[in-house]
Amino acid sequence: MLVTDVIKGPLITEKLDKAREKFRHYSFLVDRDATKHDVARAVQTLFNVHVEAVRTTIIRGKVKRVGRSMGKRPNYKKAIVTLKEGDKIDLFEGGVV
Fold first, then answer.
1. All domains of the chain in start order, with CATH
2. C-alpha separations of 50 from 9, 66, 76 in Å
3. Fewest Cβ atoms nearer than 10 Å: which of 51, 59, 92, 93?
């Protein structure tokens, strides 16, 4: 699997912003088939940082209703990456997204 195919994009919420500031945790949407090793290698290659740990979870899509019709949001995989002390990713720090 190519490193550019593993990471689909960053996840930015208030809760994750606090975790980033306090614990050096960065979160990404990743490919469903990606392993923790794939995610760590992709983050290290793309952002030139050192990864300490990777945690992954599959988020189940919510069932939503609009009028009479029912629908379901898609499932996705989230990875929370812990960086070594002193490393940071400028994509999150600069407020670009």
1. 3-86 (3.30.70.330)
2. 19, 44, 25
3. 93
DSSP string, 37-67: HHHHHHHHHHH---EEEEEEEEEPPPEEEET
For 27-40, write each residue's pLDDT tens digit: 999 999 999 999 99
At 32, give phi and psi (nearest 5°). Answer: -60, -30
Q: Is the pTM of this model over 0.90?
A: no
The DSSP 8-state label assigned to residue 94 in this structure reads T
Q: How many CA atoms lie within 13 A of 9 on its CB side?
A: 5
The rounded distance, in Å, linking the Cα atoms of 58 and 78 is 6
What is the phi/psi pair of residue 60, to 5°? Answer: -80, 140
Q: What is the pLDDT of residues 39-58, one digit of tens each?
A: 999 999 999 999 999 999 99
